[in-house]
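User: We ran a pulldown and think these components assemble together. Before we commit to crystallization trials, I'd like a predicted model of the whole complex to look at. Sequences follow.
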Amino acid sequence: GESVGLHLPTLSVQEGDNSIINCAYSNSASDYFIWYKQESGKGPQFIIDIRSNMDKRQGQRVTVLLNKTVKHLSLQIAATQPGDSAVYFCAEIIRAAGNKLTFGGGTRVLVKP
Amino acid sequence: NAGVTQTPKFQVLKTGQSMTLQCAQDMNHNSMYWYRQDPGMGLRLIYYSASEGTTDKGEVPNGYNVSRLNKREFSLRLESAAPSQTSVYFCASRVTGTDTQYFGPGTRLTVL
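Assistant: Here's a predicted model for the assembly, 225 residues in total across the polymer chains.
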């Protein structure tokens, strides 16, 4: 079965506020994590990634935090905009399992004007 | 670059019919993947191809076959469609030497 995520909760955010999306994973052997954004009717779009030997990585308006102690991953979006409304998936790769990407169930973000 | 393209965008089949979903990428990637996405769930890997001439099963391969026709193209075939195969199908390719996968726009398949 899936070791990442499982539920599809919804996060409502006021435009301009910061968003935090959480993801739990169960396999401590995971080497690499990716956050994807999926807009309605489109394929997943790469946002940011982080390797298991890192705790934090920043991109443009996004930050990913990795806490290996509690097997938790988060995506922070600064100054959330209407265009950020989408479903966000975390995914993990375990290189020992053939580099396959395993997705969680996703979180829907709704940005209120 | 067009990236990853998929055809068709939509398809309706009757139970027992067969069809092939097409995928192509113009980024010279070695690895390609087929996923299915069901409502409220993440993507599940059906089959993948690490390089031209090789294919391997993913998490949910039953009822599907694949062909890596050449480096650009990776097709997914349903020999006898079942209602349980109603889903959105995504093709992806991976940047050589990295872990990042890039996805196509998807094919929405309904099996009646």
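The first strand of chain A starts at residue 10 and ends at 14. That may be worth checking against your pulldown data before setting up trials.

User: Thanks, that helps.
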